[in-house]
């Protein structure tokens, strides 16, 4: 099978991650109300959150649930100290007017006053709020099963402002098989800069949701790798093959929508983060749109303008999706993850990054420590036997003959001795050489 067809198959299989009915969805609809023309408000309960939550939907003009036409979906995220109404609230967001003539379903969920679009760490106890789980594993599948949505990566985009800009790029980088486009407006897209700044901002805003210092991602001095595993800058390589947009001001007075003369500290901070992220994407050779519009504060007129300027590119990407070519790569700190239809379960002691390179039907490479079990997508003939050859400098060469069950192969992978503790980053945040990283390359060929 040509590489292009294998990648296309992987993308199609990845859509099962959000496929309606793929697993029981615990999301329960409590109420539904029409707020205005095209604008609807829904209330849900979910075990991912400790209390009912609301979401607003903008439907296309003339939307008919009985018609055959399907529409792409934009997940539109709000900033800190705000809520799900912000993008359609008079005097704030103008999403209703901006999308009036677009064939687009806009989903605007609540993300907490300071939820930071993560499943909270809660000092190791986990549990609610689990915003990432709610938004991506529950809400999007529910919308796509109850409305005339495309229901595939090529028909999904995510965008957001400030804290929502962090959520946008973090969601896109942690789940590159879910979204075709991502856009951040004044987004907090690099939690590594300015040094010492992001943690108090995260802790301060999350306190409005009842959080204590360290509840969201953990205290950074003890959980640097956890911060890195959610930070768009550190996950930037996952964004290849996606339409990306960054728009930011520099926080200095003199912009077209400003009247004050005192610099805006928040916009200055996110400006620094956007410059850092822009340079990171450039260093990786990942194409993206970047607008530094100079003087401008952290205010709604700029975000509305950014949405207006960004939507034509998103809609064009929906019409003409990027063709994925060559190997796919993904890095993550999670001990278990699914991406592009591949499932990886790592067996190791420490929380650390692993990297997966997918070469299509012919095999893959995995880097990290310890061992793993890798389940392929259904790329193979059910019941047929395949020769699997795994090579690494640490473990040498292993040959296994495995039968494809349901078209999938489950392959045990030896990497190398598990690192005894998290030493990938120092308490101050700098990478170290203490963590050993082993790479095993796996080739797959059919017997007979």
Word description of this protein:
The chain has 448 residues and is an alpha+beta fold. 22% of the residues lie in helices and 26% in strands. The protein is built from eight helices and 19 strands. It has helices spanning 3-14, 95-98, 131-146, 163-174, 198-206, 224-228, 265-283, 300-319; strands at 28-36, 39-45, 53-58, 73-77, 105-109, 156-161, 181-185, 243-248, 289-292, 328-332, 336-339, 342-347, 354-358, 363-368, 370-375, 385-392, 396-403, 410-416, 438-446. The strands form three sheets. Strands 1-2-3-5-4-6-7-8-9 form a nine-stranded mixed beta sheet, with helices on both faces. It has a six-stranded antiparallel beta sheet with strand order 10-13-14-19-16-17, with no helix packed on it. The chain has a four-stranded antiparallel beta sheet with strand order 11-12-15-18, with no helix packed on it. A hairpin with a 2-residue loop joins strand 1 and strand 2 (39-45). The longest helix is centred in the last third of the chain and has 20 residues, at 300-319.
Please supply descriptive tags for the structure shown above:
448 residues; alpha+beta; nine-stranded mixed beta sheet; six-stranded antiparallel beta sheet; 19 strands; 22% helix; disordered N terminus
Number of discrete helical segments? 8
Report the sheet-strand fraction: 25-35%
Give the mean pLDDT: 92
Distance between the termini: 17 Å
| Helix amount | 10-25%
Shape assignment: globular
Number of strands: 19
Q: What Rg is obtained from the alpha carbons, in whole angstroms?
A: 22 Å
| Helix/strand/pairing category | alpha+beta
Order of helices and strands: HEEEEHEHEHEHHEHEHEEEEEEEEEE
Largest sheet: 9 strands, mixed
List the strand order in the largest sheet.
Answer: 1-2-3-5-4-6-7-8-9
Q: Which residues sit in consecutive blocks of at least 5 with pLDDT less than 50?
A: 1-6, 15-22
């Amino acid at each position: 099978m040509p590489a292009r067809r294998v990648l296309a198959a992987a993308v199609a299989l990845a859509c099962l991650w959000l496929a309606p009915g793929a697993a029981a969805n615990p999301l329960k609809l409590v109420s539904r109300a029409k707020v205005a023309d095209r604008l609807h408000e829904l209330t849900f309960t979910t075990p991912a959150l400790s209390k009912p939550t609301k979401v607003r939907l903008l439907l296309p003009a003339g939307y008919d649930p009985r018609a055959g036409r399907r529409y792409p979906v934009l997940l539109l995220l709000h900033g800190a100290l705000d809520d799900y109404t912000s993008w359609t609230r008079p005097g704030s967001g103008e999403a209703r007017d901006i999308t009036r003539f677009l064939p687009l379903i806009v989903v605007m969920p609540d993300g907490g006053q300071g939820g930071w679009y993560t499943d909270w760490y809660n000092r190791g106890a986990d549990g609610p709020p689990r915003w990432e789980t709610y938004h991506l594993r529950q809400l999007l599948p529910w919308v796509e099963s109850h409305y005339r949505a495309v229901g595939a990566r090529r028909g999904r985009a995510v965008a957001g402002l400030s804290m929502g800009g962090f959520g946008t790029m973090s969601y896109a980088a942690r789940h590159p098989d879910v979204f075709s486009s991502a856009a951040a407006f004044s987004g907090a897209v690099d939690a590594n800069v300015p040094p010492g700044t992001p943690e108090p901002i995260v802790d301060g805003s999350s306190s409005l949701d009842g959080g204590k210092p360290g509840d969201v991602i953990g205290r950074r001095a003890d959980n640097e790798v956890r911060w890195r595993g959610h930070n768009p800058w550190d996950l930037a390589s996952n964004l290849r093959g996606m339409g990306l947009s960054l728009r930011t001001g520099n926080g200095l007075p003199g912009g077209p929508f400003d009247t004050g003369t005192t610099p805006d500290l928040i916009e200055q901070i996110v400006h620094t983060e956007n410059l850092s992220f822009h340079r990171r994407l450039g260093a990786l050779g990942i194409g993206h749109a970047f607008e530094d519009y100079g003087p401008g504060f952290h205010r709604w007129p700029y975000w509305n303008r950014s949405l207006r300027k960004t939507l034509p590119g998103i809609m064009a990407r929906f019409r003409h999706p990027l063709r994925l070519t060559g190997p796919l790569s993904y890095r993550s700190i999670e001990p278990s993850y699914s991406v592009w239809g591949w499932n990886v379960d790592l067996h190791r002691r420490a929380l650390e990054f692993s990297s997966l390179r997918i070469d299509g039907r012919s095999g893959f490479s995995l880097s990290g420590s310890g061992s793993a079990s890798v389940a392929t997508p259904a790329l193979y003939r059910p019941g047929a036997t395949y020769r699997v050859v795994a090579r690494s400098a640490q473990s040498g060469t292993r040959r296994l003959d495995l039968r494809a069950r349901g078209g999938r192969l489950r392959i045990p992978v030896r990497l190398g001795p598990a690192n005894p503790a998290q030493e990938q980053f120092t308490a101050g945040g700098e990478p170290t050489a203490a963590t050993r990283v082993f790479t095993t390359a796996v080739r797959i060929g059919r017997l007979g």
